[in-house]
Design a protein that fits this description.
The chain is an alpha/beta fold and 426 residues long. Helices cover 19% and strands 17% of the residues. The relative contact order is 0.16.
Length: 426
């Protein structure tokens, strides 16, 4: 239950991975039951990646926002069903058209390398410079409106361009693999998915199951996911909880895809940063155990990076053999309400969960409500969230599940917090 606050904005300092000054803005949330809480979502300071052209060393922490970033600058991005000039080639890692004109654009190769690869007919199996940097841990944004980038920045790809790539899919006969992040199921589900896929059947793949707390009943989670999906009037062909990292559940997803494909092309869709390309790698690794024709495809799988927006175009993957209908990885759709639209590149990398989530239950303050409930307590969750507990029965405890880099600290709620007006939207 989310609400917008009309209270005045104020500033506070908190800690993300190390002490830094942050500016923040107010919004509020209500929790179910009788416990009413308010939270504050931080808007962290932004920085853009700084490129060192001499050694290709990327410094994401001390760059000026005015420096050039990756974008399109009028370059073509492949769409579903489109046929590019056969003399043009795509980077197999991100789907951008290979070029040697502009180093600050996706698909760039130094001219010497481009000509050598072309001479040996290896351009179809070549990574662009940007994908090489991303594979080595760089955080390079190419999407407008993401990581504090302006929506009207002409040098970046707009979210509308990414959606337009998927529009032809609703008029095709295809099988859709929809990838959703279990750690943000509702936020990453894409409520308007029917506008993109039409009546095509969907295999719902829920990733990052290995990050759920220990002891989670996966059968109950799967049933909950199925109920939520069926309530959205989608043609669900299967629901699978998978871990692309460990491979758990991927074999069942592969089996469902092979059974439901029926000669149709397969398209992988999802919001930005839900793990589509990582799932493609795990899918191909499992598929090649059943079909030797997938071995070549597994050698040249899409680039995987923690940076949202790594994939920029539709990438054809010969997963089922060179003469069969192909699998296609697609660019992630930017959803502006998710965290990747609010944090900059280095901050996104800092808050990525790196292991199984463990609940943290902070101790109650003795000076607040005599230490019997969290009523009157404010929790600062790193520099991202502030929670004011306005109403709560006794024996209530709050449990925080998130990356270990976000520390939770408690303080008495300021007196003015109870006087702010709020409007609740359920």
């Amino acid at each position: 239950a989310v609400c917008a606050s009309s209270g005045r904005a104020h500033e506070h300092s908190a800690q993300l991975s190390k002490p830094q000054n942050r500016s923040s803005r107010h919004s509020k949330i209500a929790s179910g039951g009788r416990c009413m809480i308010r939270y504050q979502r931080g808007q962290l300071l932004s920085s853009a990646p700084n490129r060192s052209n001499s050694r290709r060393v990327l410094n994401v922490s001390a760059a000026a926002p005015s420096e050039p970033r990756y974008g399109t600058s009028g370059r073509k991005l492949p769409m579903i069903g489109s046929k590019l000039d056969p003399s043009l080639y795509q980077c197999f890692g991100c789907g951008a058209e290979l070029q040697m004109d502009d180093e600050e654009q996706p698909g760039f190769l130094v001219p010497e390398k481009y000509m050598v690869k072309k001479q040996h007919r290896q351009l179809r199996t070549t990574l662009c410079l940007r994908c090489g940097d991303l594979s080595n841990g760089a955080m390079l944004n190419a999407i407008a409106g993401q990581a504090h980038a302006a929506f009207n920045d002409p040098s970046l790809i707009s979210p509308d361009e990414l959606r337009e790539q998927l529009q032809p899919l609703q008029n095709q006969k295809a099988l859709v693999i929809k990838v959703v992040d279990i750690l943000d199921f509702n936020g990453s589900f894409m409520n308007r998915i029917r506008d993109l896929v039409g009546s095509n059947p969907i295999v719902l793949v829920v990733t990052k199951s290995d990050l759920l707390p220990k002891g989670t009943d996966m059968r109950e989670v799967t049933e909950w996911v199925r109920e939520r999906a069926e309530g959205r009037r989608l043609t669900i062909a299967g629901v699978h909880m998978v871990s692309s990292r460990s491979g758990e559940g991927v074999d069942y997803a592969v089996g469902t895809v092979l059974r439901e494909r029926r000669g149709r092309p397969v398209y992988i869709l999802g919001a930005a940063n839900v793990g589509k390309s990582t799932f493609v790698r795990a899918f191909l690794k499992q598929l090649k155990q059943q079909d030797l024709s997938a071995i070549a495809a597994a050698r040249h799988s899409p680039t995987v990076s923690p940076m949202p927006g790594t994939t920029l175009g539709v990438i054809p993957i010969p997963a089922f053999g060179p003469r069969e209908k192909r699998m296609f990885d697609t660019a992630g759709v930017l959803l502006t309400h998710r965290l990747n639209a609010l944090l900059n590149e280095s901050e996104l990398k800092a808050v990525m969960p790196r292991g199984r989530l463990r609940p943290y239950i902070p101790n109650l303050l003795e000076e607040v409500s005599e230490g019997l409930s969290p009523l009157g307590t404010t929790y600062l969750w790193g520099a991202v969230v502030r929670v004011d507990v306005l109403e709560a029965p006794r024996a209530t405890r709050l449990s925080f599940l998130g990356p270990q880099s976000l520390k939770v600290s408690a303080m008495a709620t300021p007196a003015e917090a109870n006087q702010e007006e709020s409007s609740w939207v359920y």
